Amino acid sequence: MTERKPGVVSVVLVNYKGTDDTLTSIAELRKQDWPQDRLEVIVVENGSGPEHLGRLKASDLDFTLVDAGANLGFTGGCNLGVEKSSGEIVAFLNNDARPDAGWVREAMATFASGADIGAVASKVLDWEGVDVDFTEAAMTWYGMGYKPFAGSPDTGRWESETDVLFGTGAAMFIRAELFEQLGGFDDRYFMFYEDVDLGWRLNLLGWRFRYQPKSVAFHKHHASMNKFGDFRETYLLERNALFTLYKNLGDEQLAAALPGSLALAVRRAIGRGGLDSTELDLRNPGDDSVPTIPVPKTSMAGIYGVDQFVEQLPSMTESRRAIQATRVRSDRELLRLFGNRDEPAYPIENYLAGYDKIVHSLGVLEVGTRRRVLIITGDSIGEKMAGPAIRATQMAKQLANEHDVRVISLTRSSPIDPSYEVVTVPHRHPRQMVEHEAWADVIIVQGHALRLFPVLESTRKILVVDVYDPLHLEQLEQGRSDDVDQWNRQVLDASDTLNHQLELGDYFICASERQRMFWLGQLAGSGRVNARTYSRDPDLRSLIGVVPFGLSSTPPVHDQPRVKGVVPGIGKNDKLVVWGGGIYDWFDPITLVRSIAQLAERRPTVKLFFMGVQHPNPDVPEMDIVAKVRAEAEALGLTGKHVFFNDAWIPYEERGAYLLEADAGVSTHYEHLETTFSFRTRILDYLWARLPIVTTAGDSFGDLVAEEKLGVAVHEQDVDGLAAALETAIYDKKARTEFIGNVDRVREQFTWENVLAPLVEFCRNPVRAADKSVRDTAAPVEVHQMRVRVPDRKKLYGIRHDVGRAVHYFRTEGPRSVAGKIKRRLQNR
């Protein structure tokens, strides 16, 4: 393989009996607004004869001349030119084209904007710069690539960059190593559609072909082909279209498209020649006394094209197997790049009638356009769910409107919505994830999934990482009660997990603008805020977007009494304050209990109800704060009188009925780093149920409550202030009316439909991050190197872990459940 020079662009021109045009092109290339020492011009003399070769040798222009010795066609000439070149970028320019002064510069800037941009398609106009030659690429269902607006006036309509299926070989750029990896242009084509085939194969490997309207060239068009004639051109177009279709289309689509394409090629040949295919029908007059029928070359060109496709089938099948084995993008994903596939192309009446019959009878246009989105959460999915699982399933529900969605739980799952699929993949069985990764086009992950499943770590699919939960900041509080070494290990381990995710992701989603600033800092430290990501989008919204936790747009329903008059000690007319969600070490329920004690002295009807103590995910242990707050309530004589603990976890679909019985929602925490960047999802449930909110200031929702007057935000550990705030929210009718009115106004912006909009939009057109190149299928996956030193990383498997889970299940589900799980584990070994 040629050693490539960084920053050098090698422009390849193929000359066949067009030396005047070629010399004009070379002269224009030497006027480029690009350093001449980084511009290499290669001219391949393609068997034009001694006169043309002599003129090129005699020229004093600066270029490298390569004598092919014979006519190798456009494909062979270009491939030979690349072989003799040295630049890291190769450009192809028709010898009858002239480049604008910024042609190279603008293309190179486009490569710099994305490491996954494998090629750049120039905007090509006619020689006078009036009419369009190439601005968009399209592909018919029967394999013929075309330029939709060729010949139309350039009205300025095509001035935006976009991804295309292919660029025109008249003026395009490609990474030299990628061109070599693809095997160059397919020499079997000779000319025509070789650029279509190359672009299609490039896209199948996960690279992008980017149209850049600022990189402009002017083209005389088909100056070389005029020397051969129309019949040979027709032959090449017919044959090469079948080559392209057969090699690149997936199995399912090819099964429908290939028979139709062959039938259509024959119908096109009959139509071009004006032949009557019923001429040999026994019901028509005539006999076999005349053994020949006059058939024009324009018809035989199509028939010969089909026959040569048959002749080349063995070698085409070998190519097809290699292409299909290494493709990473499905026909569904690429469909948007095909443009209008339903384009007959030839205005021949008999042909058009046959075209309609084939399309309507064989279903050749029926291609599923839905992407396959895989969402992975570590939490349980089913009747009882915590935040991560709720978020994952709501993503699935919204994305299922446009895509096929599958949600995987690493713990346990049961179906809850028919619009998407739910599967369990235990982390102990990483091979089970292989089929799901292969199925997906886009993968969305939460938590530790990338660390647990090698196939996800090495995936070449588009990867979205949900970092709404800053795990390492949680560990700063969660591990506080451990010895400092164990605490430190937990924090560093979480940090390494997140750094690993930040290295691999193509797109990240977080919970708030405040969080986004935090994650941008960590992304910068991981090297992801760089020239490529910044050049694509200076605000970096294409790298990380804000997707908060959301709430249902359907109001909660109170189907039956749940707390008031049901829970012993809570009367029907009592005033109920709810703590929605779990009790974790970074919260401050103790100050809340003390404030309830104070408020109860003057307002004996106040009751505090903790909605959930035991987390539904068995991997989440009960935290120390639970025992502490129980002890505090007991010591103050409040348990069962003014403070109540629900030891189970309320089913997700039932939580609305509980919330509707409340008079206020509360969330209290300490002011520390975790608080600053947290997003308290329980607050959203309060908005959903139209509850006045009382919360500690200092986090995103604390600021929102204060700014929008949704309730009262108080300072941390302020027992008196908290008691007064609760009294206002519960007993002050005027204040309550104002709070509830503001809640009604604000809550709409947090519906799942609204908050998930950035993710939904990304999945409509998922792209690799600007600094993420396409992984070579043959290249080994680099082993993740920890950026932080984590002594004695905690294992999520082994005897100690299993014993802990067994104890959890014994406490929460009883001995029969433990016995059943052990039995299933032994059966799966």
Q: What value does the Rg take, in angstroms?
A: 34 Å
- Given the C-alpha coordinates, what overall shape results? elongated
Work out the number of β strands. 25
* Tally of helical runs: 32
Distance between the termini: 47 Å
Helix content: 40-55%
Fold blueprint:
Blueprint: E1 5-15, H1 19-29, E2 39-45, H2 50-58, E3 64-67, H3 73-83, E4 87-93, E5 97-99, H4 103-112, E6 117-126, E7 132-134, E8 138-139, E9 145-146, E10 162-164, E11 171-175, H5 176-181, H6 194-204, E12 208-219, H7 230-248, H8 251-273, H9 297-311, H10 313-326, H11 331-334, H12 349-362, E13 372-377, H13 387-399, E14 404-409, E15 421-424, H14 432-439, E16 442-445, H15 449-452, H16 454-457, E17 462-466, H17 471-478, H18 484-504, E18 507-510, H19 513-525, H20 531-536, E19 544-546, E20 575-579, H21 589-602, E21 606-610, H22 624-635, E22 643-645, H23 655-660, E23 664-667, H24 673-676, H25 681-688, E24 693-696, H26 700-708, E25 711-714, H27 719-731, H28 733-747, H29 752-755, H30 757-764, H31 799-813, H32 815-828
Parallel strand pairs: 1-2, 1-4, 2-3, 6-12, 13-14, 13-16, 14-15, 16-17, 17-18, 18-19, 20-21, 20-23, 21-22, 23-24, 24-25
Antiparallel strand pairs: 4-11, 5-12, 6-7, 6-11, 8-9, 10-12
Any overview of this molecule?
By secondary structure, the protein is an alpha/beta fold. It contains 32 helices and 25 strands. The strands form 4 sheets. Strands 1, 2, 3, 4, 5, 6, 7, 10, 11 and 12 form a 10-stranded mixed β-sheet that branches. It has a 7-stranded parallel β-sheet with strand order 15-14-13-16-17-18-19, with helices on both faces. It has a 6-stranded parallel β-sheet with strand order 22-21-20-23-24-25, sandwiched between helices. Helix 22 links the parallel strand 21 and strand 22. Helix 7 runs parallel beside helix 9 (297-311) and helix 21 (589-602) packs parallel to helix 22 (624-635). The longest helix has 23 residues, at 251-273.
